[in-house]
Specification:
- There is one protein chain.
- By secondary structure, the chain is an alpha+beta fold.
């Protein structure tokens, strides 16, 4: 079996569909259950785009753009507490165009999805506070 990189697959076909491993994009994408389709990036990404980017040396990450800056992006996984800064255009290899959940396909240009993206990020501060509170309670209960 010949293994190809995501970049090679996008170069060859323009898109690819895959399943995620990890929980950083919950509740949007469930690990090894949901599929997502990525297309090759064309130009600058927009706020709330979910992008596949390369993290040195050889890992790939699928997270959401939460801020578009002049030379880079601020990116955050839907289930993450810490933002990532300094992600550049050359780090991004593709943008998610759709995902499949329970056999139904949803496109990222649909109004419902766009509302979800904006609302989920709007709720980031209280979600982060809640996660920190749970971690604190867990530490207190262990003592």
């Amino acid at each position: 079996m010949i293994k190809t990189t995501y970049e090679e697959e996008l170069e060859r076909k323009g898109t690819f569909t895959y399943t995620c491993s990890g929980v950083s994009m919950l509740p949007l994408l469930r690990q090894r259950k949901d599929l997502f389709t990525v297309r090759k990036t064309e130009g600058r990404c927009k706020k709330y785009d979910v992008v596949l980017y390369r993290r040195p040396p050889k890992s790939y990450v699928l997270h959401r753009v939460v801020e578009v800056r002049e030379k880079d992006y601020v990116i955050l996984g839907d289930n993450c507490m810490n933002k990532e800064y300094g992600i550049r255009d050359e780090d991004i290899i593709g943008v998610m165009t759709s995902f499949v959940r329970n056999g139904k396909e949803y496109t990222t240009d649909a109004t419902g999805y766009r509302i979800y993206s904006a609302l989920w990020y709007f709720l980031y501060p209280p979600r982060k506070l809640w996660k920190k509170f749970k971690i604190f309670c867990g530490k207190v209960l262990k003592k």
